[in-house]
Amino acid sequence: MRYQISGRQIDIGEALTTHVKAELGETVEKYAQRPTDAVVIFSRNGHELVCEATIHLSTGLNAQAKGHATEIYAAFESCREKMDKQLRRYKRRLRDHHRDRTAPVEFDGGSAYILAAEEQEDAEPDTLTPMIIAEMETKVPSITVGEAVMQLELAGQRMLVFRNEGHGGVNVVYRRDDGNIGWIDPRNSK
């Protein structure tokens, strides 16, 4: 597994890097076979230290966790425990996912845009075309609805756009305000 361990305005020593590789590698190998890489970022938020970890699995799924503490090793341990809990919760589905899928998840390219917010809400805008302040490429996975919900949970996202393997159409799963998961399938809206 490839590791990318870095700090935002924090120096990461060799001892911490070795500790992160050993502990995170052990945690991930218990639950997920064939992890490809891990990104671990340490940062400071006021008096607390924050550790954010993202693990990319060969199946296209990502697991994400975040930990806070006043010491850097404690922040990593908090993050590792959350990652362990997530992966343990989805262990059966992760292993079943490997058996059912013979080929890795396919990704289609797509464009993602960030639109500028209007500063004056009362005034009528000059044009009804919103100003685009950022444009970037994003990946849209071709997965089943169950895998999309699992990816939503593992990555801690609020919404996921995916191509439904069942019929090839674009679908969306999202976390509703009431805590449930919503699924938008335009193909069934007729």
TrEMBL record:
GO terms for cellular component: cytosolic small ribosomal subunit. One of its GO terms (molecular function) is ribosomal small subunit binding. One of its GO terms (biological process) is negative regulation of translational elongation. Residues 129-182 form the Sigma 54 modulation/S30EA ribosomal protein C-terminal domain. CDD domains: RaiA (cd00552). InterPro entries: HPF/YfiA_ribosome-assoc (IPR050574), HPF_long/plastid (IPR034694), RHF-like (IPR036567), RHF/RaiA (IPR003489), Ribosom_S30AE_C (IPR032528), Ribosom_S30AE_C_sf (IPR038416). The keyword Ribonucleoprotein does not apply. It is found in: Cytoplasm. It comes from the Bacteria. Keywords: Cytoplasm, Translation regulation. Associates exclusively with 100S ribosomes, which are dimers of 70S ribosomes. NCBIfam families: yfiA (TIGR00741). Belongs to the HPF/YfiA ribosome-associated protein family. Long HPF subfamily. Required for dimerization of active 70S ribosomes into 100S ribosomes in stationary phase; 100S ribosomes are translationally inactive and sometimes present during exponential growth. This is Ribosome hibernation promoting factor.
